[in-house]
């Protein structure tokens, strides 16, 4: 059985809308046209640029408050996001994950191709349940973006 942290409505309400708004603004600055922002429990924002469709997912890493701590060797994306990989694997588009800093001044862009079974493993932390799995992505292969 898969171990997952229970849904936290307070965190969702505190960060979800701001993350989506920031993502939309960032994408527009980068030349994307926003196609959809409808809450359907799949990609947060669907956009297009140069004839390509992008499925974009926004998350906030609340403990990340300033420059990325160099002792944090990786960015972790919850295993539950695997459903997005499955949903869009046959779509003609690109799935990107944007992990925002708490103040929304920076984010990491992680391409779906970096989320592989081989980097799915248990993580440890004070807010992580024993047995909970995450994709472990070395920050050195992600793209840091100033927002």
Which key terms come to mind for this protein?
147 residues, alpha+beta, Trna Endonuclease, Chain: A, domain 1, 9 strands, 35% strand, globular
Strands in their spatial order, largest beta sheet? 1-2-3-5-6-9
Rounded to an integer in angstroms, the radius of gyration calculated over CA atoms is: 15 Å
SSE order, one letter for each helix or strand: HEEEEHEEEEE
Would you tell me the structural class of the helices and strands?
A: alpha+beta
Fraction of residues in helix = 10-25%
Quick summary:
This protein has 147 residues and is α+β, with helices and mostly antiparallel strands. It has 2 helices and 9 strands. The model has no long low-confidence stretch (mean pLDDT 93).
Give an overview in words.
- This protein has 147 residues and is an alpha+beta fold.
- It contains two helices and nine strands; from the N terminus they run H-E-E-E-E-H-E-E-E-E-E.
- The chain has one domain: Trna Endonuclease, Chain: A, domain 1.
- The strands form two sheets. Strands 1-2-3-5-6-9 form a six-stranded mixed beta sheet. Strands 4-8-7 form a three-stranded antiparallel beta sheet, with no helix packed on it.
- Strand 2 and strand 3 form a beta hairpin.
- The longest helix has 21 residues.
- It is globular and about 40 Å long.
- The model has no long low-confidence stretch (mean pLDDT 93).
């Amino acid at each position: 059985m898969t171990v997952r942290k229970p849904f936290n409505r307070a965190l969702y309400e505190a960060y979800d809308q701001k993350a989506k708004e920031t993502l939309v603004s960032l994408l527009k600055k980068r030349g994307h046209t926003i196609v959809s922002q409808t809450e359907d429990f799949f990609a947060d924002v669907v956009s297009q640029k140069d004839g390509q469709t992008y499925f974009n997912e926004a998350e906030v890493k609340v403990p990340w408050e300033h420059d990325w701590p160099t002792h944090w060797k990786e960015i972790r994306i919850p295993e539950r996001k695997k459903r997005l990989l499955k949903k869009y694997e046959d779509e003609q588009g690109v799935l990107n994950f944007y992990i925002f800093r708490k103040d929304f001044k920076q984010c990491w862009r992680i391409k779906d191709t970096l989320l592989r079974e081989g980097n799915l493993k248990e993580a440890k932390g004070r807010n992580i349940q024993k047995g909970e799995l995450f994709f472990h992505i070395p920050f050195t292969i992600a793209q840091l973006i100033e927002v």
